[in-house]
């Protein structure tokens, strides 16, 4: 998630930290999700957010199909945290959205996520952006 975008939506995320989620792979179709995938790791930002803010965020039509899943993430300081991850069920992953994939790539670059993860995102764009 993009901390700035959350703030623009009137939410108040706290304590953002880079983290990885082993055993999950990124999939980008019309929308993005993480799916269980042996041997893959996904990267992003873990942050604190209130239950009320989560309900507000996931009540939006564009993300209302996402389902909360409890996961264990590893911060860049090697701390293991229990977290909630909102994922789209696999049967709802359809189509493609290169504009979204490109925006995600730009955010991942800005956040300093690992180069191999950037390459993974690029394959959903089909270019060397």
Description:
The protein has 129 residues and is of the alpha+beta class. It has a single domain (3-97), classed as Hypothetical upf0131 protein ytfp, CATH 3.10.490. It is built from 4 helices and 4 strands, in the order H-E-E-H-E-E-H-H. A 4-stranded antiparallel beta sheet has the order 2-1-3-4. Strand 1 and strand 2 form a beta hairpin. The chain is globular.
CATH fold call: Hypothetical upf0131 protein ytfp
- Residue fraction in strands: 35-45%
CATH architecture annotation: Roll
**Total helix count?**
4
Summarize the structure.
With 129 residues, the chain is an alpha+beta fold.
SSE topology sketch:
Elements: H1 3-8, E1 14-28, E2 32-48, H2 51-57, E3 67-75, E4 80-87, H3 98-111, H4 115-122
Antiparallel strand pairs: 1-2, 1-3, 3-4
What keywords describe this structure?
129 residues; alpha+beta; Hypothetical upf0131 protein ytfp; four-stranded antiparallel sheet; globular
